[in-house]
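User: hey, got a sec? need 4Fe-4S dicluster domain-containing protein folded
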Amino acid sequence: MIKRSLFALSKPRLTYDLLDTSVQSADEIAVPGSLTLLLPEKIDSAKKALIGPGDAVKKGQKLKLYDDSIPYVLSPVAGTIKGFDSYSDDFGNAATYILVKPDPSAKGDDQWAQTDLVQTLEFAADYLGQIPGALPVSTLTNPNYNIRTIVVTGADTDILCDTCQFVCTAYAGLMVAGAKILKAITRADRICITVPENLSAQVDLDGFNVLRTSDTYPSNLPAMVMKDHLGKELSPGATPEDEGVCFIRPEALVSLARTYETGQPVFDKIITLIDKGGKRCRVKATIGTPISKIFSCFNVQINERDRIIIGGPMRGYATYTVHHPVVPDMDTIIVQDRDVVPELSDNACVNCGECIRVCPANIPVNLLVRYLEANLYEEAADRFDLESCIECGLCGYVCRARIPLYQYIRLGKHELLTLRENA
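Assistant: Yep! Here you go:
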C-alpha cells in the first residue's frame, strides 16, 4: 500500500502487508516428474565429476561435483540423475543445475537412519545447509564472525509478502523448538524475533526477545532493525554479521526442529503465490520443483512478456523462465501481467531529487548513478556512499526518469566486491 501527501516535497509512504488470515493453510503439491537442484559451483572440465547421468541417488543423499568441492545439495527424492549443466545467476556467475528424476519405489539414504543427529554447528554445516528457509550455516560457522545475537525475521522484509508471518503463526511450536536447538548449537546470547506491531494473530513466542516493528517500509530490513531496535548503526560496507548479528528466516527454525524431531531432512518449502489479480495462494512444494508446476496447479497462465518476480516488488528479482526451481530461500512468487509491468528506461536523470528525499541512508543517488553508469565503482563508493545503501529499492520506485536505480546499485556493489577480490 502507498500513501502520498498533498505536499509535493514530502516522502511517499509504503506500508507492509499484514498476514492474510483468509489463507489459513498451504496446499501441498505432488513431487513432479523432474526436479532441478541448483549448486553454486561452476563445472570444471579438468576435474572428474563424482556424479553423472544415470547415477542412482537416495533421498537425503549429499551431492557434490568433485572430491574437493565444498558446496553441496541434498537430493529431496530417491531416483536417477538425468544430467547436469551450467547456468548463470543474475550477476552472470557460473553455477550448476542437476536434474533428478524421482523414483517413488526407491529407498531413502541409509546414512540418515544410522546417523546420530548431533546438535553441533559442524553437523549443521555438513548436512543442513539446504533445508527450507536456508539456514545460514556459512555465516554461523565463519571464524571471522562472532555471532552473539540471532534475529528471526518474523516480520517480512518486503511489501506484499506475508510468508514469514504465516510460518510464525502456523508453526509457532516448531519455531520455538528450532530456536532452542539453534541457541544450543551456536551458543548465542539471545534470539530475537521481529513481529509487526499491528499483527492481530496471537503467537506464543516463549524464549524470544520480541522486537515490534513499524508498518512503514523499510523498517523490517536488517540495517533498520539494527539501528532502531539493537542500537547499532552499520558503517559503510559493514554487515550485521560484522557486528555479531545474524538474521534468519522463521522457516529455517521450523525445518531445523522437524529434522531433529524426525531424524530425516525435510524438503517441503512454503511459498506464497500472488497471481495477476492479486490473489494469494499458499503453497508447499518440494525443493527443486519447477515453478511452472505451481502455476499449473493454481491455473495461472503465463503469457509472453508477463513478469515473474521471485521475492517482493521492491527487492525481488525477475526470472525469465517458468522452469526456475523452488529453492530454500524462496518465500514469494509474484506474477505481473504484461499490461501493468512498469517500464524502465535508459533516460538521463532529470535531477528531480525524489531519490534523495526518499533515501533512508541519505545517499545522493542522483550523483551515485552517474558513476555506476560509467562503471566507476571505487569512485562511487568513495565519493557517493555506494556501500551505505541498504538496498530498499525506494529510489527506483520514485524515479521519474524510470532508471533502474536499485539494479544499478546491486550490480555496482557486486562489481566493487569483485574488483577488490581480484586486486
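Quick note: The domain at 35-114 is CATH 2.40.50 (OB fold (Dihydrolipoamide Acetyltransferase, E2P)). Let me know if you need anything else on 4Fe-4S dicluster domain-containing protein.
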